[in-house]
Design brief:
alpha+beta; 382 residues; three-stranded antiparallel sheet; single chain; four-stranded antiparallel sheet; 57% helix
Length: 382
């Protein structure tokens, strides 16, 4: 079985209207990239897995999806380690709490409580929080209301000039900082050492967060391509783009091009595998040698593959011309895909999912976007 193409099983997901499946695919991808926290991502993952297993798709196909995601996670982790030195901080956590991922702030480690407000700091390996830089604020005329665990509540910063002097002094003392302004002249500050090799919980959080979104997107696209045949995809594209016909866009030709491109992929993969084995039997080494040698070896694979692709395209073009095919002519449909009750329910579910997400953002504001996903990972790491 080829795990990269359409899998023909008798499931209700396969029987769904292909246009409905495509619309729900777009709705789900939009939901994925709404910046909610890990709890929301796991809900989406649960929904996607339910649809996947209801489609009776092989588990081996699912497991293969994790290999590129793990590689992507490692790359993101290295990039975040080099670019993000913040430990992952949330200011005034009590007022930022929300019913989507509400935690017990009081019993959480690394939490500072002050006047009924809670401040969370993540882990910072290879660097330390600075607790001996009060003079930086005092020398610039600011008043320190609270200091402890590298956390400072500073008042009387009455102008941008004073703020810039403070931040410059922090940098000159080889320190990093994070701040949050909560009134005209009052700020929250976190100060920590500027070590290039330091590693923070924020870097892990961000890598996991982005990898989770990529996994969800790949998974839902795999479900769509595995349960929708190339012919159905062609119909879907033509159906979705049909309104563009009124502005003279050649929708039928675009759908035909995409359909033929999708249909050529399995045969070209098979041809590339055949060429690879033929060239290897002639003594061409694709694995060993330096980059130049590998590039030369690769040309012996790419050039014949391009030649075969153009030959197949020419043969297909001649066959279509001899049969009098004209994509501009009005054509009847061999199959008619009707919208059934289950299609409507499937579509309504994903519309409600996206609408609920947007409503939660409108109700909770930016607090739910910022605090939830950072804190979820900090909670695990602490």
């Amino acid at each position: 079985m080829n795990y990269n193409t359409y899998v023909n099983t008798n499931s209700w997901v396969h029987k769904l209207n292909p246009s409905i499946k495509f619309i729900t695919l777009i709705l789900f991808i939009v939901s994925i990239f709404i910046p909610f926290g890990f709890l929301y991502q796991f809900v989406l993952l649960g929904i996607a897995l339910i649809v996947y297993f209801n489609a009776k798709l092989p588990i081996k196909k699912l497991l293969k999806l994790f290999i590129p995601i793990i590689i992507m996670f490692c790359i993101l982790l290295i990039i975040n380690w080099l670019t993000y030195k913040s430990p992952g901080l949330i200011f005034d956590l009590y007022n930022s709490s929300n019913f989507v991922a509400k935690q017990n702030w009081i019993n959480t480690s690394n939490v500072i409580e002050l006047d009924g407000k809670y401040f969370v700091q993540g882990q910072l390996w290879g660097a330390t929080f600075n607790e001996s830089s009060s003079n930086i604020f005092i020398n610039n005329g600011a008043y320190i209301k609270y200091s402890g665990q590298g956390f400072y509540i500073v008042e009387n910063i009455s102008s941008n000039e004073i703020f810039n002097k403070i931040t410059n002094d922090i940098s000159n003392n080889n320190l990093r900082y994070e701040y949050h302004q909560f009134s005209n002249s009052s700020y929250y500050f976190y100060l920590y050492s500027k070590n290039t090799y330091s590693f923070s919980s924020y870097a892990i959080t961000f890598a996991v967060y982005v990898s989770m979104k990529i996994l969800l997107m790949v998974l839902i696209i795999t479900i769509f391509t595995s349960t929708t045949s190339p012919m159905q995809i062609t119909y879907t594209i033509e159906y979705i783009l049909y309104p563009l016909k009124y502005i003279k866009v050649p929708v039928s030709e675009i759908a035909l091009i995409i359909s033929l491109a999708i249909r050529f992929i399995p045969s070209l993969l098979e041809e590339s595998n055949r060429i690879f084995k033929a060239q290897a039997s002639k003594g061409i080494d694709f694995k060993n040698g330096n980059i130049i040698d590998k590039f030369k070896s690769l040309t012996s694979l790419v050039i014949p593959l391009f030649s075969i692709a153009f030959k197949k395209a020419e043969e297909l073009s001649n066959a279509m011309q001899t049969r009098g095919y004209d994509p501009r002519n009005k054509r009847t449909k061999y199959r008619s895909y009707k919208i059934n009750f289950i299609d409507i329910c499937y579509l309504i579910f994903f519309i409600l999912l996206l609408a609920t997400t947007i409503c939660l953002i409108s109700i909770q504001g930016k607090a739910i976007i910022v605090s939830t996903w950072i804190y979820d990972c900090i909670q695990i790491l602490n």
